[in-house]
Q: What sequence folds into this?
């Protein structure tokens, strides 16, 4: 049976701690749910260290541990909490190597989810980290991608913002790109919107819309391989970046890069530009396959 | 007369003349960005590092702006600091750190990012990982940052080998402490079950608090001191008598000789570096 993302993270963490590569830090780690089942049942003596509930101090203490070479895995249970937790990661860890030649590698597990959790906790917030030089941002949604992200981190000396999503934790499949000789659009999905792509392709077929799908793992650094350029060049109407964050950030930045590289128009679709409420009627969720196909139809037919 | 007082004076005097030269260099437009002088407060680092040197303790030190005297008193290279203030690649932070973000790898002094008080939780994390003697220095204003308080609490909970030094000059830019708060840092630290005291910056008083301290636990010292220059060196505060002037007078001829030698030495170092194009 294929391994879930949840079990992959749990096993990576177990090895990180038991093989003495570093420790794991965060708030309420050893609680009933063990952060969505992604942590092994280990305690402080094993390297699973509980911080107090002081978010800004916690993120900064983790940064100090990284500065000392501790290779910390720092778990932030809701990405919205990064508005507090990320302060020293982006202002110290990301700058320390450039300013003082003192690397500060920290693996920030930043966990997104949606649905009834209100104006701050919900969705992804990788745009927060994206704008700062000296940090890498990656959004693994599969087991293979998570192992790759961790391996990159362990062979690197820079801080990593790992944009996770709870809805990916049950995923057992790797996600392959689809590139057609001629397409109407090339979709560049980020984070949990990637898991909508299967359904999107089916819906698109019903609408006689032909799609390239190019999954986005690395958010920063963002490099555009020639095969992506070619795919976008060969897309009749251009491209669309989908994200689980507000579009005024990562999605717009990536769309701009793609557009500059190809001259093609690249649209964005992410959270709606409004605050999320708790009730389903006022929530703000990432774009579904249905919403994406509507956007593509609007572009195709000029509606 | 105790050698300790003279040793501490030697460090303090070097710092005072160094800072006077920085001020002069700025007046002469050699320094082209904001700088933060530690003159007036130099007796805190001068005493601390004299005591630790005598004990053979080489602590990891986390400073923020107004940290020149900690850098110099711990024995870091003054020429690299001059070059840093002149924005040169040969500076202690490669010309990137200016006055506020200086560091020394050789002397285990860690630089500051510019967010007031951020050095406190970062130092706590570093101390947790290394378990080595650690000193973190903050002003009475940065001590008010919420994350400083959170970090104090965690350091106490984990019983880390860390000494928190609050250089309390009673001013944040020009706003007095009594306008900003009605509490004191030593009481806050005690509330976190940490050993803490409020004291003045006399070398003998600092010695009294540090002579038996070997970093077996976390401790906070709120040291009341006097700032000689404004927040960013743009002007001078009232002409207070600082610990340096008191010790110079009290220690007599021997101190005056040391002071004159330091003055000449520092002037020579600055002149030599300014002549390099």
A:
């Amino acid at each position: 049976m294929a391994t879930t993302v949840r079990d992959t993270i749990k096993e990576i963490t177990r090895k990180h701690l038991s093989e003495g590569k570093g420790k794991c830090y965060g708030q309420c780690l050893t609680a009933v749910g063990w952060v969505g089942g992604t942590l092994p049942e280990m305690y402080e003596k094993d390297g699973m260290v509980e911080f107090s509930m002081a978010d800004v101090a916690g993120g900064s203490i983790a940064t100090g541990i990284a500065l000392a070479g501790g290779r910390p895995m720092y778990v932030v249970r809701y990405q919205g909490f990064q508005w507090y937790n990320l302060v020293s990661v982006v202002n110290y860890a990301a700058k320390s190597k450039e300013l003082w030649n003192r690397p500060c590698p920290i693996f920030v597990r930043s966990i997104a989810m949606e649905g009834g959790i209100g104006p701050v906790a919900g969705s992804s917030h990788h745009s927060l980290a994206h704008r700062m030089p000296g940090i890498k941002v990656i959004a693994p949604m599969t087991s293979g991608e998570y192992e790759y992200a961790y391996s990159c981190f362990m062979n690197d000396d820079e801080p990593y913002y790992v944009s996770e999503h709870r809805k990916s934790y049950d995923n057992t499949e790797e996600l392959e790109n689809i590139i057609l000789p001629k397409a109407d659009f090339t979709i560049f999905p980020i984070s949990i919107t990637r898991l909508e792509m299967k359904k999107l392709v089916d819906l698109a077929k019903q609408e006689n819309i032909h799609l390239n799908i190019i999954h986005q793992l690395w958010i920063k650094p963002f490099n555009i391989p020639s095969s992506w350029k070619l795919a976008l060049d060969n897309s009749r109407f251009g491209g669309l970046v989908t994200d689980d964050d507000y579009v005024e950030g990562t999605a717009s930045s990536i769309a701009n890069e793609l557009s500059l590289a190809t001259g093609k128009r690249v649209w964005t679709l992410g959270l709606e530009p409004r605050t999320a409420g708790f009730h389903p009627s006022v929530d703000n969720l990432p774009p579904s396959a249905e919403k994406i196909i509507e956007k593509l139809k609007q572009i195709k037919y000029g509606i | 007369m105790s050698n300790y007082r003279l040793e501490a004076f030697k460090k303090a005097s070097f710092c005072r003349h160094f800072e006077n030269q920085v001020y002069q260099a700025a007046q002469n437009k050699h320094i082209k960005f904001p700088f933060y002088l530690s003159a007036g407060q130099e007796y805190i680092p001068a005493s601390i590092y004299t005591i630790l040197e005598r004990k053979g303790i080489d602590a990891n030190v986390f400073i923020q702006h107004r940290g020149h005297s900690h850098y110099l008193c711990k024995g870091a290279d003054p020429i690299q600091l001059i070059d840093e203030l002149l924005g040169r690649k040969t500076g202690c932070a490669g010309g990137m750190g200016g006055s506020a973000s200086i560091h020394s790898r050789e002397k285990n002094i860690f630089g500051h990012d510019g967010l007031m008080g951020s050095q406190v939780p970062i130092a706590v994390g570093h101390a947790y990982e290394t378990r080595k003697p650690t000193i973190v220095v903050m002003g009475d204003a940065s001590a008010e940052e919420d994350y400083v308080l959170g970090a104090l609490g965690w350091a106490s909970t984990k019983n880390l080998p860390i000494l928190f030094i609050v250089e309390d000059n009673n001013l944040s830019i020009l706003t007095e402490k009594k306008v900003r708060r009605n509490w004191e840092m030593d009481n806050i630290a005690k509330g976190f079950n940490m050993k803490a005291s409020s004291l003045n910056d006399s070398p003998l008083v600092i010695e009294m608090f540090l002579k038996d301290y070997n970093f077996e636990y976390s401790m906070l010292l709120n040291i009341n001191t006097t700032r000689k220059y404004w927040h960013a060196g743009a002007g001078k505060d009232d002409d207070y008598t600082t610990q340096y002037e008191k010790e110079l007078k009290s220690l007599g001829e021997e101190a005056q000789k040391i002071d004159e030698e330091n003055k000449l030495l520092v002037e020579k170092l600055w002149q030599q570096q300014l002549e390099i194009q």
User: Anything to note?
Assistant: Chain B has one domain: 3-275. The mean pLDDT of chain B is 95.
